[in-house]
Amino acid sequence: MIILVEGKPALLKSGSSFEFIAENRLFMGRDSYTLTLTFPLRDCSQNRAIFGNLERIDVDKEKIFYECEIRDKSFSSIGSLLITGVSQTEVKCQFAEGRCEQTATDPFENKYINALDLGIQPSSGNYTPEQAWAGIGYGKSEVALPWINEQSPTAFNNWVVFKDNTYKWEKNIYVNRQQTTDYQTSVNGSSLSWQPYLIVIAKRICEAVGYSYDFTEWENSDYKFLIICNTLPYTWTEGDLRNYKSILPRWTVTEFFEKLELLLMCEFDINHKAKHVKFVFSKTAISNVAPFQIQEVVDEYDVDISTEQQSCDYIGAKRLAFKECVHSMQSYYACDWFIEGQYCKKDYPNINALIEANKRHALIASDGAQYPAYGDGASLSEGGTRVVPSIWDAINHIMYAINEDTYFVFRSIGIHKDAPGRRGGASQMYVLQPINIFGSGSEESDDVDTEEIEFVPVCVSDTHVSDDDDKGYMMFLSFSTYEEESTRDSTTDEKIYQPLPAATIEAGKKEEKTEYYDVIYIGFWDGTIPNYGKTPYPMLDSVNVTQDWTYFSNHLPDLRLTGQHRNIQLQIPSINPKQKFKVSFISDTIPNPRAIFYIRGKKFLCEKITATFTDDGMSQMLKGEFYPIV
After folding, report:
1. Cβ(447)–Cβ(308) below 8 Å
2. Residue 331, φ and ψ in degrees, nearest 5
3. Is 0.85 topped by the overall pTM?
């Protein structure tokens, strides 16, 4: 066995040994590492030439790394050596490779994405609505979709009207910071609030920290159409606030990529030595590793079999859930509790059948009066004075479209003007609301670990106030005011006026917020307007029903965590987390733990492999921990 430190051969302590552990990063996010390696310093000029005088008191011992390579016959691993302890006689170290090396030598731990220069929003040039919505397919880095500020819902934010068969900017929008009451065909870029593409911001983060990148696989997928919906009103965005950093959470660069991996079920390999970031989907990474067949099983030395879900760190066995947010559609987006406890349900073969059976229709009385009704079997009471719902009145039931694997409920959005002749003149207006499309598939419990995804589907909801005031569906956003909270006592005698220094001290230290958003809201936008003539909004799901009960699908992916559509956990192998096999086997090299393993004719997913090294090299007896693939 040869250990090279900074390219020079290093000697292990005589008679010592160490364990080399290769892990599958889909479990704990680690690759390969060792337990303690001990290198003698006394009477060892060879090691002294490498490590120098580390034991001296005037040497900075915070974090010391050395380039390191371990070789033994056909085995080789390159990484970093971290100093963990020093004395006058020896140096204790730990070797780290891949993800473990990234974590140990992370230069991004104090670099925050909302402090980097990520480019500014367009502030010059005139844009028609179609030009502002063109999208990344037309080489654009950002779009300016209409949105509603939940804190100020009457404020105009990229609002449009459809007049003369074309989109125009809504009246009262600011043009070059001057208010106008005319509908505008085009406006200056500074009069709009923009949403950047997620892939563009990821690239700019790399550039801001001086790293190159290879996002080819991301660029070739439909996930390039994800936009960051975090937006601030254009009236706010003067100076530094026009920089896209201002709309991002206070995450470190490392946290940004780690959280994004969970959303896309992908991997960012960050090489700090080469200053390079490479993107690959986890499914691709697994398929690029050849399967490994264990020929010589020495001993199935332990098999943990549980009748209950035991603690398993595999990401494919965890409960994934979007971080809960405070917006009007949150309870509809994720309501696992309601689905699990709901027995009052009607099944339909597909959405079209569901719509046809439940859409709004008119019941005609003998005198010609029209009574709006929903659902199968509704009828008029004797004398035609009211609508009598059927026993299967869908308004009070949950409906399920089997083919699309989607649950729906009726949701009232206000009052609808009925046709002339309707006694009373108005009735409830319902939309067909999909529910739990972004649920986790189960309620949170102590039996299964939950991983929160902090890239969250943006809130898209109706804007119906009345038949004369309705813009259809639109993005709704809510953000922090970013104001400093003063702790000054409001009961202070107002007749006393302190000088500024004394007044500042008296007011106390202010609590300053560091972000407008603590999550990143996302949606898909490829430039296609879902319902032409209505307000455009980003796509979140492959199943969509308009406000007027028209069903349409789209080619883009959806953001579901469960079900037959996407279910990101199905992108990687599914295992039985109740059975963990610990197996000893013979091999002259350490197989890649990310491979699919075949043991006695059955497929397994490996969690980790442990090898023991001594002065004589690596033992051929290896220990592995495996889960059966379902």
Report:
1. yes
2. -65, -25
3. yes
Q: Where are the domains of the chain?
A: 2-104, 113-283, 285-317+573-628, 319-448+542-571
CB 227 within 8 A of CB 525: yes
The residue that leads in pLDDT, 475 or 383, is: 475
Contacts of 350 (CB under 8 A, 6+ apart): 401, 402, 403, 404
* Distance from C-alpha of 563 to C-alpha of 568, rounded to nearest angstrom: 9
d(C-alpha 129, C-alpha 165), whole Å: 13
Residue in 231, 33, 239 with CA at minimum distance from that of residue 148: 231
H or E element, residue 400 = strand 398-401
Distance CA 394, CA 193 (A): 41
Q: CA–CA separation, 16 vs 164, rounded Å?
A: 83
Question: CB–CB of 586/621 below 8 Å?
Answer: yes
The rounded distance, in Å, linking the Cα atoms of 554 and 528 is 10
Strand 617-618 to 602-614 pairing: antiparallel
Which pLDDT value is given to residue 175?
A: 54
- Give me the pLDDT at residue 382, please: 73
Sign of CA dihedral 273, 274, 275, 277: negative
Separation of alpha carbons 123 and 569, rounded Å = 41
- Tracing tokens 């598939």 back to the chain, one arrives at 441
